[in-house]
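Deliverable D2.4 — example input (structure tokens):
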């Protein structure tokens, strides 16, 4: 198998090497089932890595979106403050908190939905 940058075999090939070594000890017949099994191993590993990568990507996108959202809401707030200088709108803390919680909940749900879709490869 190939060497990677620092002159070592990539971690994935140890299983293959091990199987081949065992086969050599037994007389050097590379029978198909063992090689198939190693191939399965490899494929599963690659799939797992890909799934992890996708989950990470989804999380990054969600965080990015949240950051954008915060920026926009701050801008909106500033505009609203400038517009309502004449007559400050009475704020009801309880209702404000309810609204904020609802928005946070919706945001979380959106992120979860997106992550789930990404996990199953639906775009």
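Example output (designed residues):
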């Amino acid at each position: 198998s190939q060497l990677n940058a620092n002159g070592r075999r990539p971690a994935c090939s140890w299983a293959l090497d091990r199987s081949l070594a065992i086969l050599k000890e037994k007389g050097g017949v590379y029978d198909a089932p063992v090689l198939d099994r190693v191939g399965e191993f490899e494929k599963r590993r690659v799939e797992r890595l890909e799934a992890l990568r996708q989950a990470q990507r989804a999380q990054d996108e969600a965080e990015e979106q949240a950051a954008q959202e915060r920026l926009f809401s701050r801008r909106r707030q500033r505009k609203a403050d400038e517009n309502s200088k004449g007559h400050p709108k009475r704020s009801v803390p309880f209702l404000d908190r309810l609204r904020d919680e609802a928005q946070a909940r919706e945001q979380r749900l959106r992120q979860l939905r997106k992550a789930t879709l990404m996990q199953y490869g639906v775009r």
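The chain is about 75% helix and 0% strand.
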